[in-house]
């Protein structure tokens, strides 16, 4: 078997998508072609090694053994069992292009790119569903619990609903391909653990019913192509009322978006990244400009006009 060098790309994602706490996610692709995600390169070697490059490499643990990509490599070989003994080791390079604690699925990007790259390098020994289970397990080591709302869209692409049933971890939903998703990272850090700690331990019955209704109606609206109804359901009754206090100028940003042809506005994952949905390119450009000037807090921040990345994670052969 040939073990050709492989480079895997994994796109950023919006977890929750406002109305689907832990159950809904969407992959992102900037319309100007800017890559918004992590890459992992895998090459044959005599022994395992990991090097880390990219604009956010210095934000990761100094010892590669503590990096989640190293843990992915170990877990991948554990799942291979005895077969692993006959395979060559791999030298891996992580290109860390997403900021940590941004709400864009940064850890999920590294995990997905690592597993997808390893699976392609070793001849695809695992199925898509097996890989998703492995991705959820490893991403959960960072976030504190297993949830697939970042790894699933990052891997599969598009808009994804978590099923977590038997051999179906997640399912892709229909999408409105003409929607623009303006995505703005303020530059501050909000950890998933911190964002979860701020949530109440018990959700009122009325909010629970609203959550279930919105998710059900949203799913129906996507399948029936009802854009207006789908957008109307994109309100977060579970996390946003509590988490928005962690995000400076959140309410001001929402007001601007909804006054300028926005269909929806919400927190991406745990924040601080926010997203605005519109079906107008002109509106997307106006919102993007305002968020860039008013929501970004420091030089680390950025804003992109995106659409959904329908392809998800890719793995391609590279030259030796």
TrEMBL record:
<keyword id="KW-0791">Threonine biosynthesis</keyword>
<dbReference type="InterPro" id="IPR014721">
    <property type="entry name" value="Ribsml_uS5_D2-typ_fold_subgr"/>
</dbReference>
<keyword id="KW-0808">Transferase</keyword>
<feature type="binding site">
    <location>
        <begin position="99"/>
        <end position="109"/>
    </location>
    <ligand>
        <name>ATP</name>
    </ligand>
</feature>
<dbReference type="Pfam" id="PF00288">
    <property type="entry name" value="GHMP_kinases_N"/>
</dbReference>
<keyword id="KW-0418">Kinase</keyword>
<dbReference type="GO" id="GO:0005737">
    <property type="term" value="C:cytoplasm"/>
</dbReference>
<dbReference type="InterPro" id="IPR000870">
    <property type="entry name" value="Homoserine_kinase"/>
</dbReference>
<dbReference type="InterPro" id="IPR013750">
    <property type="entry name" value="GHMP_kinase_C_dom"/>
</dbReference>
<dbReference type="GO" id="GO:0009088">
    <property type="term" value="P:threonine biosynthetic process"/>
</dbReference>
<dbReference type="InterPro" id="IPR020568">
    <property type="entry name" value="Ribosomal_Su5_D2-typ_SF"/>
</dbReference>
<comment type="similarity">
    <text>Belongs to the GHMP kinase family. Homoserine kinase subfamily.</text>
</comment>
<protein>
    <recommendedName>
        <fullName>Homoserine kinase</fullName>
        <ecNumber>2.7.1.39</ecNumber>
    </recommendedName>
</protein>
<comment type="pathway">
    <text>Amino-acid biosynthesis; L-threonine biosynthesis; L-threonine from L-aspartate: step 4/5.</text>
</comment>
<keyword id="KW-0547">Nucleotide-binding</keyword>
<dbReference type="GO" id="GO:0005524">
    <property type="term" value="F:ATP binding"/>
</dbReference>
<comment type="function">
    <text>Catalyzes the ATP-dependent phosphorylation of L-homoserine to L-homoserine phosphate.</text>
</comment>
<dbReference type="InterPro" id="IPR036554">
    <property type="entry name" value="GHMP_kinase_C_sf"/>
</dbReference>
<dbReference type="InterPro" id="IPR006204">
    <property type="entry name" value="GHMP_kinase_N_dom"/>
</dbReference>
<dbReference type="Pfam" id="PF08544">
    <property type="entry name" value="GHMP_kinases_C"/>
</dbReference>
<keyword id="KW-0067">ATP-binding</keyword>
<dbReference type="InterPro" id="IPR006203">
    <property type="entry name" value="GHMP_knse_ATP-bd_CS"/>
</dbReference>
<keyword id="KW-0028">Amino-acid biosynthesis</keyword>
<feature type="domain" description="GHMP kinase C-terminal">
    <location>
        <begin position="221"/>
        <end position="288"/>
    </location>
</feature>
<keyword id="KW-0963">Cytoplasm</keyword>
<dbReference type="GO" id="GO:0004413">
    <property type="term" value="F:homoserine kinase activity"/>
</dbReference>
<feature type="domain" description="GHMP kinase N-terminal">
    <location>
        <begin position="67"/>
        <end position="158"/>
    </location>
</feature>
């Amino acid at each position: 078997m040939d073990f050709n060098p492989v480079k895997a790309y994994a796109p950023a994602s919006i977890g929750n998508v406002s109305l689907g706490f832990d159950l809904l996610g969407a992959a992102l692709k900037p319309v100007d072609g800017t890559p918004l995600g992590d890459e992992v390169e895998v090459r044959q070697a005599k022994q395992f090694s990991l090097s880390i490059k990219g604009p956010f490499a210095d934000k990761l643990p100094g010892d590669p053994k503590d990096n989640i990509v190293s843990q992915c490599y170990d877990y991948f070989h554990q799942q291979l069992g005895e077969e692993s003994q006959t395979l060559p080791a791999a030298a891996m390079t992580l290109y860390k292009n997403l900021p940590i604690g941004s709400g864009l699925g940064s850890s999920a990007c590294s995990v997905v790119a690592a597993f997808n790259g390893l699976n392609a390098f070793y001849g695809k020994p695992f199925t898509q569903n097996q890989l998703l289970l492995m991705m959820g397990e490893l991403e959960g080591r960072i976030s504190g619990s297993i949830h697939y709302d970042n790894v699933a869209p990052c891997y599969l692409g598009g808009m994804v609903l978590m099923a977590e049933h038997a051999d179906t971890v997640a399912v892709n939903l229909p999408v409105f391909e003409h929607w623009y998703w303006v995505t703005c990272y303020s530059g501050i850090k909000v950890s998933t653990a911190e964002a979860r700690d701020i949530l109440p331990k018990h959700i009122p019955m009325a909010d629970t019913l609203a959550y279930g209704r919105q998710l059900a109606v949203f799913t129906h609206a996507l399948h029936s192509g009802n854009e207006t109804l789908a957008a109307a359901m994109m309100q977060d009754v579970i996390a946003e009322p509590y988490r928005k206090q962690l995000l400076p100028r959140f309410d001001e940003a929402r007001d601007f978006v909804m006054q300028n042809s926005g269909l929806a506005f919400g927190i991406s994952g745990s924040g601080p990244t926010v997203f605005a949905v519109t079906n107008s390119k002109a509106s997307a450009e106006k919102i993007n400009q305002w968020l860039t000037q008013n929501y970004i807090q420091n030089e680390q921040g950025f804003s992109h006009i995106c659409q959904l990345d329908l392809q998800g994670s890719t793995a391609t052969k590279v030259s030796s």
